[in-house]
Amino acid sequence: MCFDEMGPIQLIPHQGSGWVPLGWPERLRATYKPRHGVRYLFGAYDVHADRLHGRLRAHKNSGEVLAFYRQIRMRYQARLRIYLIADNLSTHNTLPIREWAAENNVELVFTPTYASFLNRIECHFWAIGELVVRNADYESWDVLAKAMADHIRYRNGPHRDERLARAERKLLIAA
After folding, report:
1. Model confidence, pTM
2. What percent of the chain shows pLDDT beyond 70?
3. Which terminal residue of the chain, N or C, has fewer Cβ atoms less than 10 Å from its own Cβ?
């Protein structure tokens, strides 16, 4: 499993590109109040199952990270060892997290310093930024959370499974 956070994300109009009819460009509203704070998208990517999971969180601290790690652990049988890949952020490597990992058959694997690009979840965060956050103006955190959940559900959807199955069949026939 690959884990990381995306953010901070604000509820303000974000510039971006999109498909619109020719003519005047769409205007961004200028009357917004950035009083809603920020949120972070905590994400986990299962490399073997090709599944992405994510949750919006208000804080980026070790308690929130541990709570998300527990959610990841609940998705798998206890006897199955999980290798959890994360970057070297200090909130990912606290004593309570290390103790929890030792008790729950989880091995923490940290990417080298300044090499978070080695974590395979980073490219999925780019897609969420491009397809959900940019060129958008969400009115509340609930609307943004629903848009992110819809994107993740579509990304993990059955059409993706069929494409993977077709690719595997081609490889088996060629072998």
Report:
1. 0.83
2. 83
3. C
